[in-house]
Design a protein that fits this description.
By secondary structure, this protein is an alpha+beta fold. It has helices at about 20-25, 50-65, 110-120, 140-150, 165-170, 185-190, 225-240, 260-270, 305, 315-325, 335-345, 390-415, 420-425, 430-445, and strands at about 5-10, 30-35, 70-75, 75-85, 90-95, 95-100, 105, 200-205, 215-220, 245, 250-255, 280-285, 290-295, 350-355, 360-365, 445-450, 455-460. It is elongated, with a radius of gyration of 29 Å.
C-alpha cells in the first residue's frame, strides 16, 4: 500500500517524526509505520520492544495525545504501527503547528495558522473583535437598510425597526463578549470598512481582445451588505448590454446574463471571501465573465461536491447569518445550483467552477462570441460588427446611456454637492459625456441645478 493522506512509512525512528504524528492529529488522523520503506516493504527495526515502551511516553509528553502503538511482525521482521486519531483541539510540537495535506506534512503559518486555530476552536475570522473600532464606526443607515430587508423577508420581527444600532448588533452576535465591535460588524455595517480592511473591495474590469487589453475599470467600496446592489448597478450601466425586444407595444429589456445568476454569484463571492486576502475581481469579456474571490474550499469539500447537494459550510459564519436574515442567501449550500438553474432557463451554458490562485473562480459564458472593435467609445458602447443592423446598435447605445443617467441620478441623490468631474470619475467616462447626459436630464425635468456651478447643488425631481 503506497503512502497517502493517512499513511506514512519510515525506516527507523527519529524524534523529529513527532511532527508527522502532530500533523495527523491536526488533520483527519492516520497511521505512521516504523520499519517500512517508501515502497511499502517491511525492512524491520532493532530494539522494537524498547521502542514500543518509549514511544507512548514521548508522544504524551511532547504532544499531549494518546495514540495506539502496536508491535507487528511480517516475514520474521518486527515493525511499529502508530495509529493517530484526529484531535478536536489544536496540537503543537515545540511551538509549531503541523498539518497533513495529501502525503506531505506542512507547518502552518500566518493566515493559514490563524484560520486553522479558529476552526479548531469552533470560531470564524469574522467573529474576532477589532480593538480600535467603536459604535461611531457603524453606519445607522446600513442598519436601517438591513432591518428593512430582514423584516420584509420575515426573518426579523417588525419591532426590530425601532431598535438602536447597538441592540441590532448585539442580537446578531456582532459584538464580542468584551463589548468590542467584530470584524463582521465593520464589514457589514461600517461607515468606512476599508479603513480597517484595505482589501474589502470589489474590482470590475472590462477587457478587450485579451487580459492585457484593459479598457476600463471600477472599484466598489463601502459596506459589503450593499455591495452587491452597487456592483449590479454598475454592471447594468457600463459593462453589460440589455438587448431590447417588444411584446406588442411593451418594451422589454433583458440583461445579457440572467440577473438571478449574476446576483447569486456576486453574493457568494462576498459572503465566502477570505477578507485577509486580496479584493474580489470580476473580469468582463466580449463573450464571458469570470468572478474570483480569495479563499480555499474546506479540506473535505471538493469542486465536484460543491456542484452537487452539500451542507452549507460558510467561511464567515456571522456574515452568512446576517445575509441570510436579510433574505439575500439561503443556508442549504445551493448557491451554484441556483446559478446553473438561472443559466439553463436563459439557454446559456452552465457555470464553470474551479479552484485557482488560492481562491474560487466561476465563469459564465455566452453561447456565441460577440464581436466588438478594439476601440470603446466614451459613451461605453460597443461598436457592433457589420452583420448587426444599425437599429440594433442604436438600441444598445440608447440603453447604455439611459442606464448611465440612472446612475448619475443615484450619485446626485447620495451627494447633492457632487461635481460633474467627480461623476465622470466615478463612472469612468469623460466629463463631456456626463455634461451631455445632465443637459438631457434637465430637459427631461429630472434634475435641476440650485446655485452656481461652483457652490450650488443638485435637486432631483421625483
Amino acid at each position: 500500500m503506497p503512502e497517502s493522506q493517512s499513511i506514512e512509512y519510515k525506516l527507523s525512528w527519529r524524534d523529529e517524526y513527532l511532527k508527522w504524528i502532530c500533523a495527523f492529529a491536526n488533520a483527519k488522523g492516520g497511521k505512521l509505520y516504523i520499519g517500512i520503506n517508501d515502497k511499502g516493504v517491511v525492512t524491520g527495526i532493532s530494539e522494537s520492544k524498547k521502542l514500543l515502551d518509549d514511544l507512548p511516553n514521548k508522544i504524551i509528553q511532547q504532544l499531549g495525545i494518546m495514540p495506539e502503538v502496536n508491535l507487528l511482525r511480517k516475514n520474521k521482521l518486527h515493525y511499529i504501527e502508530i495509529i493517530v486519531q484526529p484531535s478536536s483541539v489544536p496540537i503543537s510540537f515545540q511551538g509549531g503547528y503541523y498539518y497533513r495535506s495529501g502525503s506531505t506534512k506542512q507547518e502552518l503559518k500566518g493566515a493559514l495558522l490563524q484560520q486553522f486555530l479558529l476552526t479548531k476552536n469552533g470560531k470564524s475570522w469574522d467573529e474576532l473583535p477589532v480593538n480600535a473600532a467603536t459604535l461611531k464606526d457603524i453606519d445607522p443607515l446600513a442598519i436601517q437598510y438591513f432591518t428593512r430587508y430582514a423584516i420584509g423577508s420575515k426573518r426579523l420581527p417588525l419591532q426590530s425597526k425601532s431598535e438602536t444600532p447597538k441592540s441590532v448588533l448585539e442580537k446578531l452576535n456582532l459584538i464580542s463578549p468584551e463589548g468590542k465591535i467584530t470584524h463582521a460588524a465593520l464589514l457589514i455595517f461600517g461607515k468606512k470598512p476599508q479603513r480597517f480592511f484595505a482589501n474589502a473591495s470589489f474590482k470590475i474590469g472590462r477587457f478587450g481582445k485579451d487580459d492585457s487589453d484593459l479598457l476600463f475599470q471600477d472599484v466598489v467600496e463601502g459596506n459589503i451588505l450593499q455591495m452587491a446592489d452597487q456592483v449590479m448597478d454598475i454592471l447594468r450601466a457600463k459593462y453589460l448590454t440589455s438587448p431590447i425586444s417588444y411584446n406588442g407595444l411593451q418594451r422589454i429589456e433583458t440583461l445579457e446574463y440572467p440577473e438571478d445568476a449574476l446576483r447569486e454569484a456576486i453574493l457568494n463571492a462576498i459572503v465566502h471571501k477570505d477578507y485577509t486576502g486580496t479584493s474580489i475581481q470580476l473580469s468582463v469579456y466580449n463573450n464571458k465573465l469570470i468572478l474570483w474571490n480569495e479563499g480555499k474550499l474546506p479540506s473535505d469539500l471538493s469542486i465536484k461536491k460543491l456542484l452537487g447537494k452539500h451542507p452549507s459550510r460558510p467561511r464567515n459564519k456571522r456574515i452568512a447569518e446576517v445575509f441570510f436574515k436579510a433574505g439575500f442567501i439561503e443556508v442549504w449550500g445551493r448557491g451554484i445550483a441556483k446559478i446553473n438553474d438561472a443559466l439553463t432557463n436563459a439557454k446559456l451554458p452552465k457555470a464553470k467552477v474551479r479552484e485557482f490562485a488560492g481562491g474560487i473562480e466561476i465563469e459564465l459564458k455566452q453561447l456565441q462570441k460577440k464581436h466588438v472593435t478594439e476601440n470603446v467609445t466614451e459613451n461605453v458602447t460597443e461598436n457592433v460588427t457589420e452583420n448587426v443592423t444599425e437599429n440594433v446598435t442604436e438600441n444598445v447605445t440608447e440603453n447604455v446611456t439611459e442606464k448611465r443617467k440612472q446612475l448619475i441620478l443615484q450619485l446626485m441623490h447620495k451627494n447633492p454637492n457632487i461635481t460633474t468631474t467627480e461623476i465622470a470619475s466615478n463612472l469612468s467616462v469623460t466629463r463631456r459625456t456626463i455634461a451631455r447626459d445632465i443637459e438631457q436630464l434637465k430637459v427631461q425635468q429630472k434634475v435641476k441645478r440650485k446655485g452656481t456651478d461652483k457652490s450650488g447643488s443638485w435637486e432631483i425631481n421625483n
